[in-house]
Amino acid sequence: TWKWVVGPMFLYLCERLVRLWRSQQKVVITKVVIHPFKTIEVQMMKKGFKMEVGQYIFVKCPAVSKLEWHPFTLTSAPEEDYFSIHVRIVGDWTEGLFNACGCDKQEFQEAWKLPKIAVDGPFGTASEDVFSYETVMLVGAGIGVTPFASVLKSVWYKYCHDATNLKLKKIYFYWLCRDTHAFEWFADLLQSLEAQMQERNNAEFLSYNIYLTGWDESQATHFVMHHEEEKDVITGLKQKTLYGRPNWENEFKTIAGQHPGSRIGVFLCGPEGLADTLNKQSISNSEADPRGVHFIFNKENF
Predict the structure, then answer these.
(1) Is 117 exposed, middle or buried (0-12, 13-18, 19+ CB in 10 A)?
(2) Buried-most residue among 41, 106, 201, 278 (CB within 10 A)?
(3) Backbone angles phi, psi at 260, to 5 degrees
(4) Where does the FAD-binding FR-type domain lie (predicted)?
């Protein structure tokens, strides 16, 4: 028995030592941005830090807890000179970080008053392969949209810098949300991308559909009254929010018809049930002929 135990324990010890070493490296918080509905964006810098799209890090804040490490998806792009995470205040640790950063105070906080942060990572995910395809479907459910903030930012940076050498030509983005509160900070990013694409006369590069899967009677009445307005009443985008859940069979068939003979990457960050649905649709809508359309499914569950 001891032979089977010693190996894994040695590997675990090595991993803890690496994390201890990384936790001693200096991390500087450059900015903390407060978004609506108690969501904060923490922008940081660390010497030698290199990331790819969709990766995640472990974060420790000794002012809150000296032992707890929490995983967060990076929401910045590799092209930016900082790395960032978005933190929704939903528990004791996140509440402690919120207060430690001075977000509970009205006055401006000096940078030297911000707490020390330890960072371990980054660690890779399936989203890194998004640039390997000419066409991709990005599906985020709720807070699972965070990896695609990094993806969409990076794609746009690459497109603006050198569009001719960018293999990725078309993005279909789906975001499923249970309540309107989750739309706030990500809708700002989509508004910026929408405006920039229209300026460059390439509004077809990104097709996005936002689905609200839960609402009450008063909200439904408000949505109906403002449906004819130019911009969506929830997100402020020109693309109107849809209600309910997507008909995935129709979505896959439509995309397959528009891109015959293509390898289409399907990327999900969401629950296991949605992963099973998308995996089945990817298989059933892929053709047996090697020259036909093929959907390649990649998932990241939370």
Answers:
(1) buried
(2) 278
(3) -65, 145
(4) 19-129
